[in-house]
Amino acid sequence: MGKRYIDCSLNIVDADSWVQFPRKLVLGAPEPRIRVEQVHTTVNGRRMYPCCRLELTTQCFTHIDAPVHFYVESGRKIDEVPLDQFINDGVVIDMMHKQPGEGVTGEDLEKSGADVHRGDTIIIRTGWTDRAFGTREFWENMVHLENSAGDWILSKQPKALMQDFMTDIAPVKKCEHCGQLIPVAEFSPNHYKFLGNDMILIEWCTNLGAITKPRVQVIALPLKIKGGEGGPARVVVVEEDQ
Questions:
Q1: pLDDT tens column, 217-235
Q2: Which residues, other chains included, contact 65 with Cβ-Cβ below 8 Å and sequence gap of 6+?
Q3: Which of 48, 102, 201, 218 has the fewest CB atoms found within 10 Å of its own CB?
Q4: How sure is the predictor about 134, in pLDDT bands with cuts at 50, 70 and 90?
């Protein structure tokens, strides 16, 4: 029996904006820098032994949220999450037909007919990260998850949710008068639902359209940051040949 490995992780690159939650727009807080810098050791005038110096946040590019991200006092930290939440059976729900700005609803998920098992990692794909990640468009016309979809997902009792679009209602909207992006009134209700039920969120995945099987294995391993609320992750889907 053969296996096919699908990389579902974004490349980490230098970036000034749009590759993490736009906290300056939504919260009025400074946005941390994202930098990848090559450094070398110089020996006898020769540059040798290259390495990279990274300046990142735990919430940029493909990453995983642990419950403590929203439940600071009681939530499980990223280094405390059981390994069977990171390495798990997954079920694919196809929402590639969703257009910019549209939401995935509970009715959409129910009509998909996906065979979701208790304890699965639910994989919802829309192709949105592939189309627009790293741009203003990504946030301005975000494909997102409606409240009803959050309720549907919780009813299936998964261990994790993996996706390539907003795990929640869209966090910003375009002002009709000035054209600027402004925060919405309700803040991340689905994050509270999921993380409050000890799920993990595998966010900003890419290449989910390459998955051909309805059920797969997910390997999503974040950096083991002691006390961290999340971490950048390498996410791989494994398909078994029948």
A1: 999 999 999 999 999 999 9
A2: 59, 191, 195, 200, 201, 203, 229, 230
A3: 48
A4: very high
Query: How far apart are alpha carbons 125 and 53 in whole angstroms?
Result: 32
Average pLDDT over residues 150-155: 98
Q: Which amino acid is at 209?
A: G
The answer to whether 31 and 207 are in contact (CB under 8 A) is no
pLDDT score of 61 more than 90: yes
Contact 95, 108 (CB under 8 A): yes
Return the CATH fold of 3-9+65-240. Glucose Oxidase; domain 1 (3.50.30)
Structure token digits, residue 109:
């998920």
Give CA torsion, residues 106, 74, 205, 239, to 10 deg. -80
CA–CA gap between residue 163 and residue 140 (Å, rounded)? 18
Helices vs. strands in the chain: H and E counts, helices first:
7, 14
What pLDDT score does 174 carry? Answer: 84
Q: What does each C-alpha distance from 94 to 113, 150, 176, 213, 220 come to in angstroms?
A: 10, 16, 32, 11, 20
* CA 22 centroid distance within chain: 15
Angstrom distances, CA of residue 141 to CA of 5, 31, 99, 101, 193:
31, 21, 9, 4, 23
